[in-house]
Write a structure and sequence with these properties.
five-stranded antiparallel beta sheet, about 40% strand, single chain, about 250 residues, 4 helices, mainly beta
Amino acid sequence: MADALVRTLYGMGYQPVFLPRSGVQPPELYHYLRDQRRLVRIGSLAGTLPAAAALVPSEGTLGDINTQYTSEKKLDAAVSFLESALKCIGIDAAPKIDLGFAGSRNFAFAFTGVTYRSIDPAQLYPLVDSLNTKGMPKEYIEDGRLHIAYEYAYATELLMSRGDRLAFHADIQGKVGSFLDLGGKGSVSLASTTTVSFKGDPGTRAASAYKAGQLVKERGHWVFYPEEVMRSGLVETRKPYVAQPAVVLSVLD
């Protein structure tokens, strides 16, 4: 996914992710395959930690997620950005994307209707030492890339407009499908002369990002770290744990 959107989500403490299924909810267990830049979704945490079954996620709404994207050369880069952004609302393929109608290479994107489901990390601290890793590959346990997704963010709509907010160069009212074809996955419409709306399939809840905490074996006990702590002399800085800040990760499910 384009750097701008990754930075926006990362700044909020989220790992951008493309999940092949909808309806996921925290807490879930993952392993990160660094060489492949992919995640292995092990499944609901309750499968390896039965006490987690009693945890009830809280729900709420997030503000719109906005970002700008400018392609200095060709529209191909903007198309690639849009394709990645569509994955965040559950649209994994679009047979045709022609942005020539916009008359610009500078675009503004916004995820709207963003909600979340979350488990407070404090609820996980006293439970994780009972994690059952019997039968799990040895490298999953030893390489430090096992983690728990404790919050998911879900987006239902993606809005696209020119970066300068002016009307599109061509009037595509009534012929949006000639330029933007989602292949029956979700819907696309002209919200106004300046904005195109993309929506995922009704009834699906596609997760676009998650917050996670790393699982580390210390002195024979599992410890949960939702933050990375860095020390330089007397100075201590903390930042949210993110498996791979630079990319959107795909999931092997």
